[in-house]
Amino acid sequence: MFELDVRSRKPIYEQLVERIKELIMLEMLQPDKQLPSVRHLSAELTVNPNTIQKAYRELERDGYIYSLPGKGSFVAKVEHRPVDQRKQELRLEIHKLFTEAIYLGLTEDEIQGIYQKAQQDRLSDSGKGEEKHD
């Protein structure tokens, strides 16, 4: 479920944060589902427990998960996430990417195609997640 690329330039904790966010957005991790413990995930991924803890702290700060002392970390419900703030951050990131894409010569049709592919991927991945729960 949690695959990391140790050869990537991106830090391990960032890869883990992105992967967990992706699984939550694809609804493969449901609200109130318990995440693996820091110790368990550290052993499974052969990563320092501090790295896992750092990723969990960032996810909690961003409202994607919550912790219960002595019980572990759990996926937060959508209404507990600071969605408006994250949307604004994404708008800024997308604007920067669009500016660079236009500068490099991508057309509006190519950019629209990328958006449509992302929508299709989300729908197909969401469907796969539902099949797993049956």
Strands of the biggest beta sheet: in what spatial order? 1-2
In what range is the share of β-strand residues? 5-15%
Instruction: Compute the CA-based radius of gyration.
Output: 17 Å
**Helix residue percentage:** 55-70%
Number of strands: 2
Mean pLDDT: 85
Largest sheet, described in full?
A: 2 strands, antiparallel
The number of helical runs is 5
Domain HTH gntR-type: 10-78
Protein name: GntR family transcriptional regulator
Keywords: DNA-binding, Transcription, Transcription regulation
InterPro entries: Tscrpt_reg_HTH_GntR, WH-like_DNA-bd_sf, WH_DNA-bd_sf
Q: Secondary-structure blueprint of this entry?
A:
Elements: H1 12-25, H2 38-45, H3 49-61, E1 65-68, E2 72-75, H4 83-103, H5 108-133
Antiparallel strand pairs: 1-2
Question: How would you summarize what this structure contains?
Answer:
This is GntR family transcriptional regulator. It comes from Paenibacillus provencensis. The chain has about 130 residues and is mainly alpha-helical.
